Structure to design on (215 residues):
């Protein structure tokens, strides 16, 4: 059974979606631990309610990013994960950390990468008059939000959308669907990373898979 360690910082909507996918057998995996850098994160209650071991590693308790990431790695590696899943984790991870987990570190980003890496993706997409917006599940590399994209989903931007309304729709219509689906591919042994490209069912993905095109 594939073992996951999930890193969160806040609400945990993506965490909850993954928990539910495990509970109803859409995702054959074991969540070995939820690790959080924010002791007040609501997502910690979601993990505890699901009976998942939790660990707070508060970045403010460490003198540097390196010592914080060394503590993170110690807790993560003690769980022997097959995959490390960033789910609303809001700290930038250094190259040593990323190299250590290369090929088994995933993230979800609320935009149609490579468009809108970084923060405030919804506000920027609206300001640019985009027709479509969405979210991407990708492998994490040293290039922040620049790793190879596995699966995307999109939603049409609507008149009257605000960043908050758009963010909620992207979370509800896209994020909570694409993360469990991409993780299920990994759990079924279908997903990998070769060099800086995604491999799915033995073939290099030239373009990310699109949720709306999946059966
Ligand atoms: C989500 O928009 C996710 O894409 C981003 O953080 C936001 C909050 O995620 N990485 P969650 O509710 O904590 O899962």
């Amino acid at each position: 059974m594939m073992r996951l360690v999930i890193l969160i910082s806040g609400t945990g909507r993506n965490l909850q979606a993954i928990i539910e996918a495990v509970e109803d057998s859409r995702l054959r995996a074991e969540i070995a631990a939820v690790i959080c850098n924010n002791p007040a994160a609501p997502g910690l209650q979601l993990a505890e309610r699901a009976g998942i071991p939790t660990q707070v590693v508060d970045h403010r308790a460490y003198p540097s990013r390196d010592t914080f990431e060394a503590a993170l790695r110690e807790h993560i590696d003690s769980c022997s994960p097959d995959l490390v899943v960033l789910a609303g984790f809001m700290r930038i991870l250094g190259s040593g950390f990323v190299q250590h987990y290369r090929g088994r570190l995933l993230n979800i980003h609320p935009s149609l990468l490579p468009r809108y890496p970084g923060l405030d993706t919804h506000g920027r997409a609206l300001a640019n008059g985009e027709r479509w917006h969405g979210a991407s599940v990708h492998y994490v590399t040293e290039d922040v939000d620049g790793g190879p994209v596995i699966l995307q989903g999109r939603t049409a931007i609507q008149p009257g959308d605000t960043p908050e309304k758009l963010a909620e729709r992207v979370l509800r219509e896209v994020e909570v669907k694409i993360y469990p689906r991409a993780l299920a591919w990994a759990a079924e042994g279908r997903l990998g990373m070769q060099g800086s490209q995604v491999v799915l069912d033995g073939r290099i993905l030239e373009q990310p898979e699109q949720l709306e095109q999946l059966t």
Notes: The mean pLDDT is 97. Helices lie at 13-23, 43-49, 65-77, 95-100, 121-127, 163-187. Residues 37 and 188 are 30 Å apart (CA to CA). The pocket of 5-O-phosphono-beta-D-ribofuranosylamine is lined by residues 8, 10-15, 43, 87-88, 108-110, 135, 171, 175 (CB under 6 Å).
